[in-house]
Amino acid sequence: MVSIAKIRGRARGVASEFVLACDMRFASHEKAVLGQPEVGSGVIPGGGGTERLPLLVGRGRALEITLGSDDIDADTAERYGYVNRALPDDELDAFVDTLARRIASFDRRPLEAAKNLVNNVSLPPLDRQLEGRAVFAQALGWPETRKRMDVLFSRVMQTRGDLESDFGAHLADLLDT
Predict the structure, then answer these.
(1) Residues that are catalytic
(2) Which of 11, 61, 72, 172 has the fewest CB atoms in 10 Å of its CB?
(3) Distance CA 139, CA 39 (A)
(4) pLDDT tens figures, 130-152
């Protein structure tokens, strides 16, 4: 199976980690926003953000994204390697559909063999991913995490509004009020 993520909107945190687990990622130039805001929220990425992202974008950029906890626009995501391409929104569906149909027209065995060989040199080992999940679970019990989470939920996190639209921008001064 070949998995292709089409990003037209926000893919932060676990949503970012979901698209990082896909084989390819294509983003709407005008509408896509990606990010790993966990550190700014008091935890760490626990679903592959610290394991998969550095393999795609490199160490320095992965640290910028995870430690900076800010939103990344589609053009920056493309330049960094976070997504394969950022396309104009009105071209995104046709491009991904054409690519998926092209890949689907090829024989299964060469697709599987080529994907397995690429995976062998480009995916993190399972034990590294499990370690990330374990540290994430520990972080949920940290007092400083609880404090940040309480503030976020009191500001109605995960509902439409300024906090959700510009989440990364709000994290730096989260405890100032």
Answers:
(1) 17, 38
(2) 172
(3) 10
(4) 898 899 999 999 999 999 988 88
| CA atoms of 110 and 144, how far apart (whole Å) | 50
pLDDT at res. 162: 80
Instruction: Return the closest-CA partner of residue 126 out of 52, 43, 16.
Output: 52
The distance in angstroms from the start CA to the end CA of the chain is 48
Q: What is the DSSP letter of 45?
A: -
Structure tokens at 8: 């037209």
Element (H, E) at 16: helix 14-21
Q: Which of 52, 49, 45, 51 is nearest to 23 (CA)?
A: 52
Q: How far apart are CA 83 and CA 140, in angstroms?
A: 29
Q: What CATH superfamily classification does 4-167 receive? A: 2-enoyl-CoA Hydratase; Chain A, domain 1 (3.90.226.10)
